[in-house]
Amino acid sequence: MSTIHLIGLNHRTAQVEVREKFALVEFTSPEKWPFLCHKQGISSVENKLAVKESLILSTCNRVEMIVVYDGDYEDLLKVWCETKGADINELRACMYHYEDMEAVRHLFRVASSLDSLVLGEPQILGQLKAAYRLSVNAGHAGLLINRLLHKAFSVAKRVRSETAVASSAVSISYAAVELAKRIFDDMSEHKALLLGAGEMAELAAMHLMHCGIKELKIVNRTLSRAEELVQKIGGEAYTFDALESCLVDTDIVISSTGSMEPIIHAEFMQDVMQKRKKRPMFLIDIAMPRDIDPAVNHLDNVYVYDIDDLKEVVEENLANRKTEASKASQIVDEEVKAFEFWRGSLSLMPTIMDIENKGSKIASEEVAKTLRNLEHLGIHSAELQEALEKMAHSIVRKCHHAPLDYLHNSYKHNSGEQNTALIRQVLKLDE
């Protein structure tokens, strides 16, 4: 049975600079996928490792890959580093690696937001679903990843419905607005700008409007998307061309674009601050990779915060969720055992098929023999043959119920392989 590998790094193991370096956000199509599906062959593709299945999850707080692969996981690290032009030793220093059921447990915890910077935040589930779609489109979601991801989604649903781990509105976007509220006591006296119009920006916009922000501008590369958000939340929409003029009249900036390069540089901000007559400005960068060059923080009266700076704010908003996390962990443990049983039972299928095929063959042979004997007595009809076949196959199924039940139960007690061999020997399936 192939091994399920999960390798990655997150906000606990790597600083934001390292997560930026190893981010895999650009792999969004089959052509750009860092792995090659073993079904596609490897003759015409260079520098790609053939694996059975793979999925890539790259967010602001984590970069992870789930790979079904028979070889050494070091091969996976090499591909990761080669695609990013990065040092493998730097990756080893901050990565984690799980196999099989520990990989499953980690994924279920991620999907349930038990491993997030913000415990219980809802964004990770949407990000995981998006990653799954990309894996499907790349042709890398097979039996295991399909089952594993759908199970992860159902585990997350159970955690949310059976616990209060996500009871209050806490997210990275929420934490960013909470930080802004600390800086400005009265939000109704200040103006905010959102750089980017994605999901995180939308959440930040909702929180800002709820706090009574005086004015909200949304600046996005695509004006239509900014206008959509304005229609839903309120505010004014602009393109990047208007960024400088918008910043001059802004007190709070929350940035969350998908740009691969910084958008706001120190020289650019120096011009903005001169036009603002040095009035203080607070910039909160929740993008990954970061939108704001760290050098901007060296300018007078400019205060830049990134995702890692939000940890303190986040911790204070989590007290009422932590008691629920233990309940959620119990749900995860239950579901991991269920998945382990399902995966182990996959190896039963050849034996189950052999038992059923042998039983079907015996039933058919005995029915044919009985019909031949009845012909001498002048007794034969289609209805009789159908009744005999139904009875014979029913008897065989009932006879096979006990050994099949024995096989299924054996996997619950970690003796599946031994008992499968025993059943095959007793029933003479290999003769």
Major sheet? 6 strands, parallel
Element order, helices and strands? EHEEEEHHEHHHHEHEHEHEHEEHHHHH
Gross CATH architecture of the largest domain? 2-Layer Sandwich
Q: What is the helix tally?
A: 16
Describe the 3D structure.
The chain is an alpha/beta fold and 431 residues long. It has three domains: 3-168, Glutamyl-tRNA reductase, N-terminal domain (Beta Polymerase, domain 2, 2-Layer Sandwich), CATH 3.30.460.30; 172-315, Rossmann fold, CATH 3.40.50; 344-426, no CATH class. 53% of the residues lie in helices and 14% in strands. Strands 9-8-7-10-11-12 form a six-stranded parallel beta sheet. The chain has a four-stranded antiparallel beta sheet with strand order 4-5-1-6, with helices on both faces. Strands 2-3 form a two-stranded parallel ribbon. α4 (100-111) packs across α6 (143-162), α5 packs antiparallel against α6 and α15 (382-412) packs antiparallel against α16.
Please outline the helices and strands.
Blueprint (H helix, E strand, L loop, with lengths): L2 E8 L5 H7 L12 E3 L11 E3 L1 E6 L3 E8 L3 H12 L3 H7 L1 E4 H12 L11 H15 L5 H20 L9 H12 L7 E5 L3 H12 L4 E5 L3 H11 L2 E3 L4 H6 L3 E4 L10 H10 L5 E5 L16 E5 L4 H6 L2 H28 L2 H27 L6 H31 L3 H11 L5
Parallel strand pairs: 2-3, 7-8, 7-10, 8-9, 10-11, 11-12
Antiparallel strand pairs: 1-5, 1-6, 4-5
